[in-house]
Amino acid sequence: MTPERIPAIKLLLLPKDTNALGTIFGGVILSNIDLASAVEARKVAAHRYVTKAMHEVEFHEPVYLGDIVSFYTETVRVGRTSITVRVSVEAERWGAGITSPAGTGHGEKVKVTEAEVVLVAVNDKGRPVPIRPEPMQV
């Protein structure tokens, strides 16, 4: 039996999150990818983080009103002042009247997108700081 994956963030998206077509605005997904990556980075080391880059975000499926969206994270690399986090986004279809050719549309899970996010640890002046303590020089 494989262990259950636990998302960094899990959301029910609401009417305020929709675009002119009635699906969830891509910027809402991007914002939550950013938040999920920061949650993961804080597990590595408790710093303030700023986002430096978000690589290759390609949307594979729309997100509908009423979908439950999970943001799964994994630390890919820890550098001296930066952390790279992979965020995978899945939608669980629970919206009214949503169906797909492959299923009923109720409880079906679909991959929405994924991205690698590079975050930099910063001090209170916004300057990069080491993620882990520097070894003492002798």
Short summary:
A five-stranded antiparallel β-sheet has the order 1-3-4-5-2, with helices on one face. By secondary structure, the chain is mainly beta. The protein has a single domain, classed as Hotdog Thioesterase (Thiol Ester Dehydrase, Chain A), CATH 3.10.129.
Give me the side-by-side strand order of the main sheet: 1-3-4-5-2
Level-2 CATH architecture: Roll
Termini separation comes to 50 Å
Measured as a percent range, the helix fraction is: 10-25%
The H/E string reads EHEEEE
What is the strand content?
25-35%
**Global structural class:** mainly beta
Overview of the molecule:
The structure is a single chain. The mean pLDDT is 89. By secondary structure, the chain is mainly beta. It has a 5-stranded antiparallel β-sheet, covered by helices on one side. The protein has one domain: Hotdog Thioesterase (Thiol Ester Dehydrase, Chain A). It is built from 1 helix and 5 strands; from the N terminus they run βαββββ.
Protein traits:
14% helix, elongated, 1 helix, 35% strand, 5-stranded antiparallel β-sheet, Thiol Ester Dehydrase, Chain A, 138 residues, 5 strands, mainly beta
Topology readout:
Layout: E1 9-12, H1 26-44, E2 48-55, E3 68-78, E4 82-92, E5 109-122
Antiparallel strand pairs: 1-3, 2-5, 3-4, 4-5
